[in-house]
Recover the amino acids of this structure.
């Protein structure tokens, strides 16, 4: 559940989600769930010309299973806290 | 994603906030379906009413009517809410008939096949 908790901290920040089909979508992280399904708001596609059908999509739901990367803002991670949480989780809670 | 009460519905990843709205569903094979979301579950299985497939080839497009569709969740890549205020597609794109879009699709497929076979025939040259 570490990454689920971690993504919950990022709600409201602007992220870029790159999918396994190479589509990259930038938007405000609205919500995330246990499967790491993601909802984005105010989305725009990085390569708009290649994906004209995405023009009128403002909000979207992305299935967790198709996500390749989530690119975060530079201040999106507090290394120390994540480090501690990782060790805690590895010890079993 | 779950069935959420009205108070947290708009804060969760639940698709409940998309019910009865016109959506674009992107599938793993690249197909684009449009329709009104009538039902869903935790796997993102979804029921689309008045579904149609939007086929885009270059600057040509066509919406092919399909009817009532149940989509198995594993095939779903993305579900987008269509902003009806904004224009649907870039203005230079042209709507054509089903027959025309099928022709364009075939031409595009033939072109990629040809490219593939040309490359295969050139392979013996061992170009670096």
């Amino acid at each position: 559940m570490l990454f689920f908790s971690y993504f919950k901290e990022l709600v409201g920040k602007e992220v870029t989600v790159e999918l396994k089909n190479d589509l990259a979508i930038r938007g405000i992280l609205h919500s995330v769930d246990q499967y790491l399904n993601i909802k984005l708001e105010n989305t725009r596609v990085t390569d708009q010309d290649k994906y004209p059908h995405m023009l009128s999509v403002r909000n979207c739901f992305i299935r967790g299973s198709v996500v390749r990367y989530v690119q975060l803002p530079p201040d999106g991670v507090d290394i120390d806290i994540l480090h501690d949480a990782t060790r805690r989780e590895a010890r079993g809670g | 994603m779950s069935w959420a009460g009205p108070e947290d519905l708009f804060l969760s990843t639940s698709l409940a906030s998309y019910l009865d709205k016109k959506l674009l569903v992107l599938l793993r094979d690249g197909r684009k379906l449009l329709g009104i979301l009538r039902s869903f579950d935790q796997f993102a299985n979804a029921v689309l009413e008045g579904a149609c497939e939007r086929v885009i080839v270059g600057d040509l497009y066509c919406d092919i009517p399909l009817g009532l569709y149940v989509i198995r969740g594993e095939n779903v890549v993305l579900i987008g809410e269509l902003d009806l205020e904004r224009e649907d597609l870039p203005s230079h794109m042209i709507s054509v008939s089903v027959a025309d879009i099928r022709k364009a699709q075939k031409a595009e497929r033939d072109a990629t096949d040809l490219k593939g076979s040309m490359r295969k025939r050139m392979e013996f040259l061992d170009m670096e």
